[in-house]
Task: structure prediction
Amino acid sequence: MAQAEITGDTMRTADGVPLKLALERALFRSRLRAVMLVLPLFAFLLVTFVLPIFDMLFRSVEDQIVADILPRTVVAIEAWDETSGDLPGEPVFEAIVKDMAEGRKNKTLGRVARRLNYEVSGAASLFRKSGRKAPKITQGPYREKLLKIDKRWKNLDLWNLIKREKGDFTASFFLAAADMQYQPDGSIGMRPENRQIYVHLFGRTLWLSGLITVLCLLLAYPVSYLLATLPLRSGNLLMILVLLPFWTSLLVRTTSWIALLQTQGVINSFLVGIGLIDDGDRLQLIHNQFGTIVAMTHILLPFMILPLYSVMKTIPPSYMRAARSLGATPFTAFVKVYMPNTVAGVGAGGILVFILAIGYYITPALVGGRTGTLISNFIASFISGSTQNWGLAAALGVMLLAIVLALYFLYDKIVGIDNMKLG
Amino acid sequence: MSSLPPYAGPLERSWFYAYRTICAAIFVFLIAPIFVIIPLSFNELPYFTFTPEMLSLDPAGYSTKWYEEFFAEQSWRDAVGNSFFIAIFATLMSTSVGTVAALGLSSPAMPFRSAVMAILISPMIVPLIISAAGMFFFYTRIGLASTHLGVILAHAALGTPFVVITVTATLVGFDQSLVRASASLGANPTRTFFKVIVPLILPGVISGGLFAFITSFDEVVVVLFVGSVEQRTIPWKMFSGIREEIRPTILAVATLLVMISMLLLTMLELLRRRNERLRGLSPG
Result:
């Protein structure tokens, strides 16, 4: 390439290729090399992480149970006019009797019963009871016979539900996650006051995460300032006190808070020992919101200290000295000169702690009791607990994910992903 | 604020000591909960508090029986084995793909750099419960749920962001002309990689690997969802132990885990110093 020569008005390399083209090729090759290096990780994460997230997105709207298990019914119910106020006709009842008999044989009836029970309570027991007797009904009149087995088949809400959920996709999980439901006339409205749970729960999760973030900031600010202004050697020594909790297992730290806070624990025993409280009325410090707040503040505090510290470390001490020499009191100098310089650190630490707090599961599950649990605990219990409802768990997860991704975007804008530091 | 200037007035002087006291209190809040469990784990009685015998330093109040119980019980031994098995393989996986990707990301020619970076970092940002739920759904579909491989893959995915971040941070100060120098002296790209690049970025790779290791070693949410009893790890045993029947054995395990953290922290600190010394950032 050293012997580029000019022929006409295009520059060429020694082997006659136009220089522009050769440059483009070289650039393309290095680009390709960079992409090829990133590709394995990208593919790996796609399979192990991104596809699972999309699977969850999909599950929050997917709902083929009714169509799969009651195939005859969903066809027959097409003809029924739900606005008429009448029960569906004989063909629909014939279809559902046959579907139930088959579902019982294939052991799939329980799934559709549970699915319908999410929205019409009592549907599970109705299907179980009728499913047992359905195989014996071999000829009409099906409607009369089914109604004799159980009067609840007169419930129009149930038939509305079957007709609405006959498709492959549903909005009901998202509606449920937002405390909404279909009204009898088919419109969408809020659930009755006493059955609204999740909006309140999201509110509590956001409020507790905000509170924990503020507490972390209040505790982290003075400590970070001290660490950043101390001489390097003693600063590094004290930094170990921050890094050790950071590196200690989450469960270890949660366990120690249980040992400290429980009614027979260290703090209560100490208070009883010095005679501040009676043995009879030990303080309830755990299995409530207080426990969640204290333990999570402790666990997340290093995530606030580290970004604050790295920003404070870059502020030259001469700024404060200059302010003082210009006549500012120490307080004014700190508030007017030092604090504005730390805004980036406050933003970075604040968003990081908030993002981590909003999705916390383990600590609230162990120390939160009934009032200190967060949205994650409900998602977990809908997946593996006694009240299984994967669709609702997925819908709640998608809503939580949306909040976190919005904050992540904000973090990227304020701090930049590239500037994320560890330890 | 590192020391009091000689001209400080009484107000400034008293604020200085008040401030130091506040900071000391916060440090106590940070560190005390971790150290309080160490003596508690030697309690003779199955309580989570200091007994009068312990406070009077009576040797009869102390015992190592919870440690003996931990080492004697088969389920805990299985958990230790599982934890190390899963963490080691997850670390190897995430460190290798993560390091290679960091090399690509650090190249100025990488297109859509920040967007790609945002995706690669996301396992660290997405709440664990969501990753765990998604992995549970998807791994069940493809038959990876309740297998060691499934948990290893999941943990490797969670560990890669740490490797990417630490290795790209090491590569920021990397002099690209070293690669060209190596090539001009006749080394092929593979030889250049192992003889020039690897020794220089090794501290970053190791500390990223340590992060990945501890991420997997401490992780419990994903194991709870993706794994089954066959894959139970130390954190799993601790979690279910605290939920069901809380015994001081858990405090003994916690103490051992604190020791491991201290070990890791020391290794990281040594690596950091070595890295700074190599680049001449700090003396000695």
Observations:
- The first helix of chain B runs from residue 10 to 40.
- The CA atoms of residues 207 and 268 of chain B lie 6 Å apart.
- Chain B touches chain A through 95 residues (CB under 8 Å).
- Residues 10-61 of chain B form one domain.
